[in-house]
Amino acid sequence: MPLTRAQAFRRSALAGACVIAAGTVGYMLIEGQSAFDALYMTAITITTVGYRETFPLSPTGQVFTMILAFAGVAVILLIASEVGRLLVQADLRELIGSRRDLKMLDKLSDHIVVCGHGRMGRAAVEVLQERRVPFVVVDVDDNRVRQLAEAQIPFIVGDATQEPVLRAARVGRAKTFLACLADDAHNVFAILLARQLNPKISVIARAVEEGSEERLRLAGADQVINPYRLGGMRLAFTAIKPTVMAFIEASLPGSPVELELAEFVVRPGSALAGKTLAGAEVRQRFGVIVVALKRGERSSFNPAPDERIEAGDTLVALGPIQALERIEQALS
């Protein structure tokens, strides 16, 4: 079994310590010197620096010095080889990992680009991982990049406001762009660039400063989320309408109740296309409730049973996760 870095370092350090200790004790016993003089003599011998002896050597001492010099050279070579091996292994792992990541990114399509792996970006990534949605993270911070690499999360190192970085993240083939950078100015630049590279991409931006929502929309964001405002509204509504908020909590990730809101696009040729909600028997067959139907720019909340489902419509349904998976299969 190959040695780990810690094991290799301990083995080399132990070998060096043993040679130093043996040399010090040997000079003390053979030449009768003090511990400090014996240690000094050992140091200049094993490092082959060529300083003169601090005390005259007997024939036995001279033989011991030659043996100690060879042992010192052997230890230095051992330490150098271990360090070189670890460096080569690290470079190989990084090279192999980079090539694997590049191959994986080449296959990405209809994915989500997450710009920024701060608190909000991490929360988004956790949900995407849980739902197994393809994504790639763009971040420039060394510590965050190291965490992404350790967690084996696909990422691109670089500034999201630079065109080569977003091209490397395959923005041109992406479905959604999440702008979660630390300030609104960088989010605006990143959104403008993403729009230039992919005019059809859906852009969702985080607003950092109060009143920056309009600027982000003008830059091209389809939706702007202000986490502070949302958090304040959630606190207020929890105090005013606790039962309603408890129901909404049940549809959020991490809830112990497996209830969720989901949206589905009705594909051409789907079993539900051309039928009314009552005729499709969505509630009876799948155990979900259709709470909204979107057709183009028009949205119908709580659609009537005689509402006809057409190809291209988007259905928003509420129900258990397993039931939502069944209706997704039927719609596709």
Sheet bearing the most strands, described?
Answer: 6 strands, parallel
Name the beta content range. Answer: 5-15%
Order of strands, widest sheet? 3-2-1-4-5-6
CATH architecture term of the largest domain: 3-Layer(aba) Sandwich
Helices, by number, come to 13
Unreliable runs: 95-100
End-to-end gap: 49 Å
Q: Which geometry do the CA atoms define?
A: elongated
Q: Topology as H/E string? A: HHHEHEHEHEHEHEHHEHHEEEH
Question: What does the radius of gyration come to?
Answer: 33 Å
Describe this structure in words.
This protein has a 6-stranded parallel β-sheet with strand order 3-2-1-4-5-6, sandwiched between helices. Strands 7-10-8-9 form a 4-stranded antiparallel β-sheet, with helices on one face. The protein has 13 helices and 10 strands. The chain is of the alpha/beta class and 332 residues long. It has 3 domains: 5-103, Orthogonal Bundle (Helix Hairpins); 109-230, NAD(P)-binding Rossmann-like Domain (Rossmann fold), CATH 3.40.50.720; 258-331, Regulator of K+ conductance, C-terminal domain (Alpha-Beta Plaits), CATH 3.30.70.1450. Helix 1 (5-31) crosses helix 2 and helix 9 crosses helix 10. A hairpin with a 2-residue loop joins strand 8 and strand 9 (298-301).
